[in-house]
Every structure is written in C-alpha cells, then in structure tokens.
Amino acid sequence: MATTRTLEQTRRRGVLAAAVGTIVEYYDLTVYAYLAVVVSPLFFPGDDPTASLLASLAVFASAYLMRPIGGIFFGRLGDRHGRKRALLFSVLLMGAGSALMAFLPTYENAGILAPVLLVIARLVQGFSAGGELGGALTYVYETVGEKRKGLGASFVAFGSNSGFALAAIVVATTSALTSDAQMTSWGWRIPFLLGVPLVLFCLWTRTRIEDSPEFEKVAAKDQLAKAPLGELLRTHPKQVLQVFGLGVAQNATGYMVLTYIGIHLVREGGYSQTAVTWTAALVIVLVALSMPVAGLFVDRFGSKRVLVVGLVASAVIAYPAMLMMGEHGLFVAAIAFGFFAFGTPLIQTATAPLFPSLFDSRVRLTGVALGFNLATIATGGTAAYIATWLIDRTGSSVSPAFFVVGSCIVGLITLATIRQTTYLGSRAEQKTPAAV
User: Taking 70 as the threshold, does the pLDDT of residue 337 lie above it?
Assistant: First the structure.
C-alpha cells in the first residue's frame, strides 16, 4: 500500500512539474504576441501600420524557425541523457530569453540594433521552446499509468494553454494600470520581467522529480540511441510525418485562438485593446480548464474519436464564428470567440498521448519534438501572420477561416493513416507504443 501511494505521489509530482514548466515556457513565448500592437511601432516605425504589424508578427514567427533545431538538440539531450535534464535546461534557456526581451532598447534609442536584438531574443526563446512540449509529453507519457495517459497528458496541454492565458491576463492588467503613453514607454517591459520569477519556480519543481521509469530501464540496459536523429529518420520516418500532419491542424486551430483572434478583434472589430485582451484571457482560461475533461474523454473513447470530433467541429465553426466577430458588439464577438475555440481542447488533448505513442522510447523525445516543431513552423507561429496577410490580400475579414478549414482537412487525412494498433487512448485499445 505504501509503495502504491509513493508511486502515485511520484506520478503526480512528475505531471505537476511538466505542467508548470509548460505554463512558464508558453507564458514567456507568447507575451510578445499580446504586445505586438504596442511593440511593433517601437521596433519597426513607419507610416504604414499594417506593414509595421506584419514586421512585428514576422519576428514572432521567427522564433518558431528555431524550434526544430531546438527540438533536435533537446531530443538528443533527452534521449541520450534523460528527460529530466532536457526539461530543466529548456526552461532555464527560456528564462534567459525573456530577461533579454525585458531590457531591449527600442529603435529610437538604438536604431537598427534594436530589431536585431529583438530577433536574437526571440530566436533564443524559440530554440528553448523546441524542446519543451516534446519533453513534457514524453516525460508524462512514460510516467503515468496505462489507464490515465489521456488525463495525464491533458495537464501538459492545460499548462501550455494556461501560459497563454496568464500572458493575456498579465498584459491586460498592465494595460489597465498604465496609460497609453506609459504602456508605450515602459509598461510593455513588465510582463517580460515577471517571467523571471516564474522560471525560478519552475526550476524548483523540476529539480524535485526523478527521470521517467521507462528511460531509466533503457539506460540500465545500455540500450540508449547513440545518434537519436539518425536512428529516428531510419526507423520512424512515417511517424514523424504523422506527427507533422496532425500538428499542422493542432497548431493552426490552437494558435488562431491563442494569438490571432485577439489581434483580429482589435484591428477588424475596432474594440479596445484592454477589453479584447481580457476577453481573450477568459476564453483561453475556459479552454485550459476544459483540458482535463477532454483528457477523460480520450481515456474513455480514444484519441481517434475525440480528434475527429475536434477537427470537424473546428472546420465547421470557423467561418460563421468569424462572421459574428464583426459589427455585432464585443459581447457577441466574445461568444463567437468561445465557439471558435470549441475544438481546441479536444484536438490538443487527443494528440498529447498519441504523439509519443508513435515512437520507440530510444527516439521518442526526438521524434515528437521534430515532427511537432516542423508543424509549428508551418501553421503555428505563422498563424497570425498568415491570417493578417490573407485579410490584407483578399479584403475579407473572414478569410482566415479558410486557413483553419484547410489545416483541419490535413489533420483528418493524416489521422486516417494511423492504424488501430497504435495507442489511441481508449481502455480497450491501450497498448505499449509500437512503430506503425
């Protein structure tokens, strides 16, 4: 009995450390997105506000170009030297990038050096983020019991979305407590500074965990991959593409909710920045809180069924929801925002245990990180940029909905290639991962 209690405590502590880390990582990574409207003229001054915003969003997207490189680095670190070491280093590096963001000079003070330093800080953050989600999903998958892989992984999804929500709340609070002039002068630095103590707390939680039992077993047998990336590409190329295909849909739907719709409501709806940021925070909090419920659905019905519901719902709802975000008032826009986000927890929680199940433990972290981070480049960090570009080119404020629909179709096609022999979440189908 004591052994059972100790095992459960170890599992809970591991899930908590993974979730807290993803909160911190995604808070630090996305504060910039919520400040894009404020920051863009400070680093990219010009007469065309759309061009300035697009330049700022391009910098936001640039961080995601580093994610596959970070994924390869942290994948090797985690597959060769332990999941815990990868989780600790990724958060430490993210904290360094956030601290650099807080003290950046503006274009007025440093000229062209200002946007160069901004890009460097974002690249550091992107490199760090490349190892976070893959490491957290892998660690939780290998730590929780067979009957609760969906629920356990849902807390990683809860953590990443909570990071977005926390970023929105902090930015909204800062905006509410400062004037427009103060926010432009120094207020925008506060959310970045607050990321530093969050990093310290995360480091404390992650130093208190043990490595995953599955990794320790492989290490004890001296069966660790000597070159995880090379072995991955030889033995699991199909699985990397499957993670990529599902990741395209997950990132497109998720990042539209988490980063773009707030910008859309300000620019296209004409609503105030503070009101929109609070609205975004509320919607994202509801999305985050629904993650554990979605995790229970995954454990009960399986990842495939939950994924189908989430992808179809997102594709069907996108267009009418964006239509309602126009000239109908903020209350109606907020309700439409909520419906737009309906599929997000279903998609994210269903893929959370499915991704690591596709790979052998020798290359698991590398496989999840590489496939997912490539997808994040395609439709994640670029989502806000693509949506803004589509509106600018087509003149239609609802054109980003077609980006969501297309991405969901890619996800559904990819899901059809995954056989039932892979762990799909339902208790009747639970099996130790095997290559598909």
Answer: yes
